[in-house]
């Protein structure tokens, strides 16, 4: 899931300073983790400890209250027993990457992605966005080709993934909906040559840069077999110390270590 975390950090600088090309610094002094990272780590924690997603999101969200959550999620976070507010926002898609790694059966991936989404994002588009990203990661790590991933997601979720970044970029703007950002993030991966290129593609659309780079980076990590060491090191250096343990536990559970 470090592919998602690094993408979030790299994109954090450009969320409110949109880019329309790929020629920008990967890292700045102000590159930082946002709510995308906090809730991705929370998802991993819930999976490893077999705990409730709502409790995990509140635990981590309250620990980092200034990470950049949307207003409705902040309200949900403040209440101990708030129900899902049926969001169609891309928050469900940006935090789901651990699910795509954790399970070995496609049906389990889809079911668990829905469970992770529905505690806040119970709208059909919110659930669909989470499932699409988790399934893309699952297929990528299982060796599926770009064409196979595109065809599977189009068939399952009715996403139009045949568009090019060149066609999308001129008129694309900030869009926090799953339906308006998850497909574009997948396309950023589909047109990539490597992990860094996927992240640059996502940011270059000039939209919700941290979340889109988080999603594209998560799929790219699975497809390309990891995150380049230099990027991995920068991301780990910027993580809060309290996040390193759940990250290590998650990767150990999968049979890997952080090195």
Task: Explain how this protein is built.
The model has no long low-confidence stretch (mean pLDDT 96). This protein has one domain (2-253): ADP-ribosylglycohydrolase fold. It is an all-alpha fold. Helix 1 packs across helix 14 (229-238) and helix 2 packs across helix 15. The chain has helices spanning 2-12, 35-49, 53-63, 71-78, 91-94, 97-102, 106-118, 124-141, 146-157, 165-168, 178-190, 195-203, 209-224, 229-238, 241-253. The protein is globular. The chain is built from 15 helices and no strands.
Strand content: under 5%
What is the count of DSSP helices, taking H or I runs of 4+ residues? 15
State the order of secondary-structure elements, H for helix, E for strand.
Answer: HHHHHHHHHHHHHHH
Categorize the overall geometry.
globular
Named at the architecture level, the CATH assignment is Orthogonal Bundle
The average pLDDT is: 96
Q: What name is given to the CATH topology? A: ADP-ribosylglycohydrolase fold
Largest sheet at a glance? none
Q: Please estimate the helix content.
A: 55-70%
Q: What is the CATH level 1 assignment? A: Mainly Alpha
CATH homologous superfamily descriptor: ADP-ribosylation/Crystallin J1
Number of domains: 1
- The count of β-strands is 0
* Quaternary structure annotation: single chain
Radius of gyration: 16 Å
Low-confidence stretches: none
Structural class estimated from helices and strands: mainly alpha
N-to-C span: 14 Å
